[in-house]
Amino acid sequence: MTGSTGSALPTPTTAPGRDGLDAILARPGKALIALDFDGTLAPIVADPEQARAHPEALTALAALAPKVAAVAVITGRPAEVAVRNGGFADAPGLEHLVVLGHYGAERWDARSGEVSAPAPHPGVAAARTELPELLDRLGASQGTWIEEKGRAVAVHTRRAADPQAALDSLREPLAGLAHRHGLIVEPGRMVLELRPPGMDKGVALTGFAREIGAGSVLFAGDDLGDLPAYSAVDKLRADGTPGLLVCSGSAEVTELRERADLVVDGPEGVVRLLGTLAARLG
Ligand SMILES: O=P(O)(O)OC[C@H]1O[C@H](O[C@H]2O[C@H](CO)[C@@H](O)[C@H](O)[C@H]2O)[C@H](O)[C@@H](O)[C@@H]1O
């Protein structure tokens, strides 16, 4: 499913994907370009605090944004963290950017510079309190650590000697903890996040596409938390809105590759695609 890269626009490998790209090219002013952050716009690193947008990302986004209906970042990160690590605040050309954080529960608008969000779920505080003792009791692998996310709490294993084994050993106990406090577990790349139910990137993407009256949608992601957005694009397509599913390819996650219309080479490939699309839209 890998499309060609370089200065020519790659050709999606599926018919719906080709229709999606054709629709974006035919009526760019109706196109929504929606992008995940970590692993898609920002290369994966061991310390999430150090994750930054690819050096060419802002240039590509700023070139594309004025030519399409909207550009949105849809991320599991708190919105303000994605804005900070992405360098999105006050970025020239991105005056209308929207960042939907916490899988869409939070929203930052570049126009106002403000974040709107619902009241915190009480289960998050309760789970947070129990989590360190639970990890101790389980003898969690060295390198396992807790990320405080405000509206959620996440357990990372990327720094463990065997990250996948460390992650797998925590799945059941963390599912139990989440369940006791009315939360869900969001699995990701060497991370298990305990977060409130009721929102996902698919709901977020569909809502924003409706809000702006999108006539076509491009969504790019790399991780399991992006699958609901893939399903949302499938549904939009079934309902008559063309869409293009882009996978920011990695060796860690294969599920998106199988459903994507176009697989590119990680954030480098995503940024190249965005830049090429902007150039093509002239
Ligand atoms: O929805 P996303 O924008 O993809 O955010 C998902 C999670 O991203 C972060 O974790 C991931 O990136 C880290 C930095 O590269 C990496 O160390 C970690 O292994 C990845 O899972 C973030 O820390 C999580 O809170 C986000 O939910």
UniProtKB/TrEMBL annotation:
Q: Does the keyword Metal-binding apply?
A: yes
UniProt pathway annotation: Glycan biosynthesis; trehalose biosynthesis
Record flagged with keyword S-adenosyl-L-methionine: no
Q: Which domain of life is it from?
A: Bacteria
Cofactor names from the entry are:
Mg(2+)
Q: What's the EC number here?
A: 3.1.3.12
Give the enzyme's main class according to its UniProt record, as a single word. hydrolase
Return any one Pfam family short name. Trehalose_PPase
Q: Which reaction equation describes what this protein catalyses?
A: alpha,alpha-trehalose 6-phosphate + H2O = alpha,alpha-trehalose + phosphate
Q: Sorted alphabetically, which keywords does the UniProt record give?
A: Hydrolase, Magnesium, Metal-binding
Q: Matching NCBIfam families, A to Z? A: T6PP
Q: What does this protein do?
A: Removes the phosphate from trehalose 6-phosphate to produce free trehalose.
Stored PANTHER family: TREHALOSE 6-PHOSPHATE PHOSPHATASE
Q: Which family does it belong to?
A: Belongs to the trehalose phosphatase family.
Q: What is this protein called?
A: Trehalose 6-phosphate phosphatase
This chain's source organism reads Streptomyces djakartensis
